[in-house]
Automatic annotation (TrEMBL):
Residues 115-136 are annotated as: Disordered. It comes from Thiomonas arsenitoxydans (strain DSM 22701 / CIP 110005 / 3As). Keywords: Bacterial microcompartment. The keyword Protease does not apply. PANTHER family: BACTERIAL MICROCOMPARTMENT SHELL PROTEIN PDUJ (PTHR33941:SF11), PROPANEDIOL UTILIZATION PROTEIN PDUA (PTHR33941). The keyword Metal-binding does not apply. Signal peptide: none annotated. It comes from the Bacteria. It is found in: Bacterial microcompartment. The gene is csoS1c. This is Carboxysome structural polypeptide. InterPro entries: Bact_microcomp_CS, BMC_dom, BMC_shell, CcmK-like_sf, CcmK/CsoS1_BMC.
Length: 136
């Protein structure tokens, strides 16, 4: 006799991961979001490099917030994102006083998923798009 399958929120996150390894369903799979906000592009690049080297995370985007602020976003398992954000924040501080904030969301709500980029190229904007569109 087979036991009934428990609801998704009771199953471990590993049971809910899609077979193709898709990281877009964070609230279902337990995939975390890590964010580092910096003053300037150089600290943002330094932080992104350190995060990707420190743990198994995927760089999903960067946002030029305005006033010289840049936010870098990574996704991965909670432990990996935690390690990556710590490494990124440390690297950013070594560049100067560029670190503004570092934050982790362990399980992103489904409603928030719609505003997150799925890859660095999926943002469709930022400073590069503005520069390209003004050239003739």
């Amino acid at each position: 006799m087979n036991a009934p399958t428990p609801p998704a929120w009771l199953r471990p996150a590993a049971d809910a991961v899609k077979p193709d390894g898709d990281l877009e369903m964070a609230s279902v799979t337990g995939i975390a979001l890590g964010m580092i906000e910096t003053r300037g592009l150089v600290p943002a690049i330094e932080a992104a490099d350190a995060m990707c080297k420190a743990a198994e995370v995927r760089l999903i985007g960067r946002q030029f917030v305005g006033g010289g602020y840049v936010t870098v976003l990574v996704r991965g398992e909670t432990g990996a994102v935690n390690a990556a954000v710590r490494a990124g924040a440390d690297a950013c501080e070594r560049v100067g006083d560029g670190l503004v904030a570092a934050h982790i969301i362990a399980r992103v709500h489904n409603e928030v998923e719609g505003i997150l980029p799925t890859s660095p190229d999926a943002e469709g904007g930022g400073r590069d798009a503005e520069i390209t569109s003004t050239r003739s």
